[in-house]
């Protein structure tokens, strides 16, 4: 009886959040490193199906960097990065496209179907609702002059086909988004998944943008789990960036959160996807389990 009452109390706590977020878009970005565990992936997808079932409209953007690197290693290719961007020649692009669309997205669609909900990869018959332009890294020469560094088929998202996303969201279908986009010239580009998630959230006026990573949100002191911050204001985030506390893989997530918030997204979160049902705990409970960024 006590266990049943506890479950009922959990549902009662979630009720106002379910009402508040019903018919609202929530963009979720699931990082490639956090996807390495089958059990973690299953629990995240269960959370997303639950959200859809209670009337929320989730959009799942996924990464896949580790899987791409593994596939490259099988072909005796060495991944190369500059400032966190994968140098993407034609062969690497084809590997990335196959891994992200034909393997990871297809697997997620299948698993969501097994959980009782419809899902669809946004790439369909070579049509992609993500539009991009070629991205160059801005650097400087020894003399201090600006220089653009060409890193291959790497792009920056410039537009999305909003109607395609909304049509999927307004049905019982969950859109699955691999970070691969098309340019107006027909070229295909490997794009940063964090930026893709933020761009979609901004364009569609999402209620929330949630990043699932393999860390406990943002720490105010490096490598000190007790320094976990449940809420950070924009100015506090910039201070942590200036102090090099927020860096590496957390940096683009934090900046993407701020960018989305400034464009009208209501709230942005960075949470540990390795915690069982972290997504539900963050969205449907008073305390939450990650870092909420606000402006």
Outline the fold blueprint.
Layout: H1 2-21, E1 25-30, H2 38-53, E2 57-62, H3 65-74, E3 81-82, E4 85-86, H4 90-114, E5 118-121, E6 130-140, E7 146-160, H5 162-169, E8 173-177, E9 180-182, E10 188-191, H6 193-204, E11 208-213, E12 218-219, E13 228-229, E14 231-233, H7 234-242, H8 250-262, E15 267-272, H9 278-284, E16 291-294
Parallel strand pairs: 1-2, 1-11, 2-8, 5-8, 7-10, 11-15, 14-16
Antiparallel strand pairs: 3-4, 6-7, 9-10, 12-13, 15-16
CATH class: Alpha Beta
**Domains (count):** 1
Instruction: State the distance separating the first and last CA atoms.
Output: 43 Å
What is the overall shape?
globular
Trace the largest sheet across and list its strands: 5-8-2-1-11-15-16-14
- As for the CATH topology, it is Carbamate kinase
CATH superfamily: Acetylglutamate kinase-like
As a whole number of angstroms, the C-alpha radius of gyration is 19 Å
Q: How many helical elements? A: 9
Low-confidence stretches: none
Residues in helices, as a percent range: 40-55%
Element-by-element helix/strand order: HEHEHEEHEEEHEEEHEEEEHHEHE
Any idea what the CATH architecture is? 3-Layer(aba) Sandwich
Beta-strand percent range: 25-35%
Q: Major sheet: size, sense and barrel closure?
A: 8 strands, mixed
Class by helix and strand content? alpha/beta
Mean pLDDT: 88
Count of distinct strands: 16
Description:
The chain has 295 residues and is an alpha/beta fold. The protein has a single domain (22-130, 159-294), classed as Acetylglutamate kinase-like (Carbamate kinase), CATH 3.40.1160. The protein contains nine helices and 16 strands. The strands form four sheets. It has an eight-stranded mixed β-sheet, sandwiched between helices.
